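To whoever is covering the structure queue this week,

Two jobs came back overnight. Logging them here so there's a record in the thread.

Job A:
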Amino acid sequence: MTGTTYTSIDTIPSIVNTLRMQFNTGLTKDIQFRKEQLKNLIRFCNENNDALCKALWSDLRKHVIECDVGEISPIVDECQFMIKNLDKFCKPVHTNKRFLMNATDKTYTRKEAKGVVLVIGAWNYPVNLLLMPVVGAIAAGNCVLLKPSEVSRHTAEFIATVLPKYLDPRAYAVVTGGVPETTSLLENRFDHIFYTGNGQVGKIVMTAAAKHLTPVTLELGGKSPAFITEDADVNITAHRLMWGKFFNNGQTCVAPDYVLCHKSKLEPLLKAFQDTLIEYYGKDPHISESYGRIVSTRQFDRLKELLDNCDPSTVVIGGQTDREDLYIAPTIVSPITPEHVLMQEEIFGPILPIIPVDNMDEAINIVNNRDHPLALYVFASAKYKYNKILDKTSSGGVLINDILMHLQELSLPFGGVGPSGSGSYHGEKSFDIFTHSRSTMVKDLMAEPIAACRYPPYNEDKEKMLKVLVYGFPTGIGAKFSTLGSFCGAFWNFMFKKPESYSKL
């Protein structure tokens, strides 16, 4: 996608205003309308599967299997889940009243759309990370403005061109562009912003949103560790860890960023890593159709600089690069220390450093001296071993004895904590994040004789009644009967003996 195909900055305010006017008509609040749009999104994925895979190949050299597993099928699954459960999600939720004065009233929360929401996607999973939150936004009844990442230009151009043919253009729009266009977008008022990307841009998004007091969901990243304990299964660990790390060429926000390996497992693990990589990609991954590429020369140069700053003797597997082809081989760097250059920032590429540790307490300290990661992985056979790590660390999510798979489970919310993100989505959480729970109370008019004790002028009888209505009856049979008697006496005086009585009611 070239700059000439970007959305004109001058038109962005009118696009946002048009969506807001459309939301105010109530079009997207209709549940059947929402279901139809979700069905159309499924059709978009199914009817354009080959074209989407072609665009993803052009951007990231993703194999069709990685396209389906990591990009397209999750959108279809999420849509189907929402269609099946939408009626239930939209029902008012009745509450258990705790205030005695409201005992005869109706109290519930209404699940209402927030309004016009902005979804900013990421380049590493340009279909999934753009459309997955959009599913929740549609299901919740919002109008949506989509901003695909310009870095994955082929996919962004395809979505911008084709998706509007499937979703109702009155309620959903796509804006394309780079930093100037995104900056212009953020100057507008939205009712929610959902951003997936890095922390630096996340701060910019949050700062812009603060000017309008707009709520924000940030799905960021960070250095996600993988613990390998002394009782881990080496063969299974190698297969699952190598798959998860080098899926999408390591350009995954929850990819294991570094390994904390018990020293007793280091040598057998390195051997298993080597054997597994040959099994997956052959002796020369450069010619393997199953192995992806770096998205851009900018990202390639960043990763190449990291490699160049490593001691060559520590590059125990891989290390080969080809800038013209944006190729970096699956690379293992070992051993390193927590102060190593590879530990200074999220790697976000096919380089995996290993820190040998004497015990898991040492590993836990290394993790806790850093920002909370988006994901945390533990390979261990004994339950007490991984529970100890979970008890003493914090992360957005956790997966024991595997990599990445928790993202596919719709019953689990996905999100970060602290610098790795705020807010979560997937499954029902995708609906909730774009919904306002509107507290609603319907007062009982027939209860006015009781409610009237709150009105001035105040007196001792009203005070006695209000104490019971506010604080309830005390525990203990004797105290309850005593308080009930006091309440009844006060109510009798209030209704029939005082000048301000409500006896005429």
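Job B:
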Amino acid sequence: MNTILDLPIHPLAIHAPVILVPLLVLFGMLYLFVPPIRRAIGWVVAALTLIAPATAYGAVWSGEQLADFLYPNGWPEAVTEHYDYGIRLLWILLGLIPVWWLFAALDRGRRASALRDADSTPTVVEGEDGESVSSGASDPAATGRRLFMIILGVIAFALLALAAWMVFNSGDTGASMHWEGWQNRGGQ
């Protein structure tokens, strides 16, 4: 088992996902539901989508080492449940990465298209049938992009909500194990 200053790594490693996953959920929800601030917080969410899974992996890895050290003959049910929540959290966060980055890329394309449309002055030209046609302020991909962003946004929302639920359950089961162990030792 790896240690830092004679302490197991797991109690130290869990603090990062306990802080970063809720921050990812908070900033991710703001990014999804408050479009005007997307440019301001986009880089924060992008960084958290990469850092949070790495910290979750570190917590799972160090937890496996600690559990194997404490229970060489097999893990108790509470440890297995705690571990399962951690693994689920890790997979949810890994699944969020491509969904999030694709959503952000489509949003960036939407913003770039809106800027192009704002910069161009629509001109009116006469169509083949003699009807006036406006050119300049149209994005042929806008409808498809919007639909795909809605679908990805719903998936991202679900993954963020699941990540919040899994980090809560993982933390709760871990804290319960520690607290019950502390109480069984007489509060020492």
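Note for Job B: The beta strands are 3-4, 7-8, 123-126, 132-135.

Please reply-all if you pick these up so we don't duplicate work.
Q.
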